[in-house]
Amino acid sequence: MTDVRADAVPGTGSTAASRWTADAMQRRLRRRYAFERGFKLTGLAAICLSILFLAFLLWNMGSQGIGGFTQYQAALPIDFTKSDLFLDPAALRGPDAEQTVANADLSGAISKAATTAYGPEAAEMFSDGATTLLTKEIVRNPSILNGQATLWLPVGGKIDTAAKHQGDAASERIVAALKQKHALRRAFNAQFLKGSDATDPSAVGVWGALKGTFYTILVTILLAFPIGVLASVYLEEFAPKSWLSDAIEVSINNLAAVPSIIFGLLGLAVFLDVMNLPRSAPLVGGMTLALMTFPVIVIAGRNAIKSVPPSIREAALGVGASKLQVTFHHVLPLALPGILTGTIIGVARALGETAPLLLIGMRAFVAAPPNGISDPATVLPVQIFLWSDEVDRSFVEKTSAAIIVLLLFMLLMNGLAIYLRNRFERRW
Fold it and tell me: What angle do CA 227, 231, 234 make, to 5 degrees?
């Protein structure tokens, strides 16, 4: 009987084992493993670099913007009996009391009291917000007009900058005099969160821009989301496959890549010039951003509907459901998490847009918060752009603080959308 060994037959286990243990094969394995380790290290380095950039951005915005949420106040002793206000305390108890006080020369009284207390250089040391606070204090307590009072009022932008960082020589002298008399303190800047745009950096606020942003995004979502979802459902489930549907699909994909300023030109031409809608209104801004967000929602919706297993449709059709029932009772609920993901991406892009809103006039100086979608308003990205263009150094920290507010608002909106997406998510 012939002894046939395994290594004598080509292709058997012994020969294959000898090949895997050869030096050439070992070198190939070492190169392969080295490449895998290098790829992992490259990916880890990319993640670390991204985290470092993000941390630097947050630290830079936080260090510069934290001062925007605080302001310096100075103690101002006022002798109302020697002022030129001539206000009768008895006349300040009606509904028009605040308007009566506002018509008086409060700024002159503040300037005179500051000059008496701290010298001629302090005549303009207080901000415009000091007049507003003094008005509210007189309306709240009219009896102070009969005597003397010491009020803590916000200082102007130059004095505030000199107290926080470094200012001109005159402001530095005023700050030194205030600190020597223990008449300067740092407090939370409530005006920044409940005020609107102003010429004085110490009196500006983000509430007006925040309301404008909310109204604009609300109009955007109410228009883009239902239209985008219905369009994606029709194109994916009901539209016949033809050259027309292919052309529509290509057009939507191209619209998603169009620069945002083109949508601004479209909004200017259609909504303002043709439809004569109010300029600088959240209604027009929301409609313009809806045009920009619509293609993103359609593309995400079609991809989410495609990802639903065909067995879901077949099972529903097998028990007698109609095409419409299959789509809206089974397919659409399962595709809703993916649709909401696309909506989050589109709305996040719309939240940070500036160029299309500049073209429709939402860069106007708006000193009062809007009360509706048709009132003049601005949005946070545009407000940040306008403040960053100011020459006054005091606007620098206000710009960074507004960026922090915008990031928090964006996180809140995205967090709500992610919650809804997880709420409607189903597994199969």
Answer: 140
Domain termination site, one of 188, 219, 252: 188
pTM score over 0.85: no
pLDDT at 290: 92
Residues forming beta bridges with residue 75, ordered by sequence position = 152
Is 392 domain-assigned?
A: yes
Token reading at 43? 């990916």
Judgement on whether residues 177 and 213 belong to the same structural domain of the protein: no
Containing 164, the helix (H) or strand (E) segment is helix 157-164
Query: pLDDT category, 41, cuts 50, 70, 90?
Result: very high
Structure tokens at 365: 């100086």
**Would you state the structure tokens that stand for residue 206, as one six-digit string?**
């983000």
Specify whether 181 is located in the same domain as 211. no
Summarised one tens digit per residue, pLDDT across range 73-104 is 888 888 877 776 666 666 666 666 667 776 77
Q: What is the DSSP string of 344-369?
A: HHHHHHHHT--HHHHHTTTTS---S-
In a domain, 7, yes or no: no
Q: Give residue for tokens 């299309």.
A: 356
In the block, residue with structure tokens 């606007």: 395
Instruction: Note whether 254 and 248 are within 8 A (CB).
Output: no
Q: How far apart are CA 374 and CA 71, in angstroms?
A: 33
- Please report the pLDDT score of residue 147 as a whole number: 78
Is the separation of the CB atoms in 378 and 205 below 8 Å?
no
Q: Is residue 6, in this structure, part of any structural domain at all?
A: no
Indicate if the pLDDT at residue 234 is higher than 80. Answer: yes
Answer whether residue 193 is part of any domain.
Answer: no
| Each residue's pLDDT tens digit, 178-211 | 888 888 888 888 888 888 888 777 778 889 889 9
- Find tokens 């109302």 and name the residue: 80
Give residue for tokens 């080295």. 34
Range of the domain at 338: 207-424
